[in-house]
Amino acid sequence: MNDVVYMTEDGVRELELEIQDLKGKGRKEAAQKLAEARSHGDLSENAEYDAAKQAQELLEIKISQLEITLSRVEVIKAGDLPSDKVYILSNVKLKNLKNNAIFEYYLVSPAEADFEKKKLSVDSPIGKALMGKSVGDIAEIKAPAGIVKYEIIEISR
């Protein structure tokens, strides 16, 4: 469990803000829900109190897990990595060779992955297939529908 978690400076800031928010607003809201449920009387048969107590416990577990992650972070910078091949912190433009669709992804650590923001984990099937490749190389990704081939058309930092 002593594995290093590689993150960008932005990712570390986001993690710190999330912890701060959970410790402040999150704990305050959990305490209010507990107080409200407690005011409804007998705690032995109060499902609302049990639910609020469980939510508070889950919040504390999440805070603890995020703090453990933060304690294992090693900050990485794009400038420290070569730009001739795909590595973590690469912006990669790909062309699907079957339908010529163009995709762009930013490769990040699993802790920072967010598919909606086009931040792709280096541990994902696509991320693994792209690592170490150069412009012009073909990456093959196993998908449920079969193997999908992407040509790397641009790499930037």
Task: Write up this protein.
The longest helix has 30 residues, at 9-38. The protein is α/β, with parallel strands linked by helices. The strands form two sheets. Strands 5-4-3-7-6 form a five-stranded mixed β-sheet. A two-stranded parallel ribbon has the order 1-2. The protein is elongated. Helix 1 runs antiparallel to helix 2. The protein has two domains: 5-75, Helix Hairpins (Orthogonal Bundle), CATH 1.10.287.180; 80-156, Transcription elongation factor, GreA/GreB, C-terminal domain (Chitinase A, domain 3, Roll). The protein has helices at residues 9-38, 47-71, 125-130; strands spanning 5-7, 73-75, 91-96, 102-108, 119-121, 138-143, 146-156. It has three helices and seven strands. The mean pLDDT is 88.
**What's the SSE pattern?**
EHHEEEEHEE
Distance between the termini: 30 Å
- The number of distinct structural domains comes to 2
Which geometry do the CA atoms define?
Answer: elongated
- The first-level CATH class of the largest domain is given as Alpha Beta
Provide a count of the helices: 3
Walk across the major sheet and give the strand order: 5-4-3-7-6
Q: How big is the Rg? A: 22 Å
Helix coverage percent of residues? 25-40%
Q: Overall mean pLDDT score?
A: 88
Number of strands: 7
Low-confidence runs: none
Largest sheet composition: 5 strands, mixed
Protein structure class: alpha/beta
Under CATH, the topology of the largest domain can be stated as Chitinase A, domain 3
Please identify, by name, the CATH architecture of the largest domain.
Roll
Beta percentage is: 15-25%
CATH H level of the largest domain: which superfamily?
Transcription elongation factor, GreA/GreB, C-terminal domain
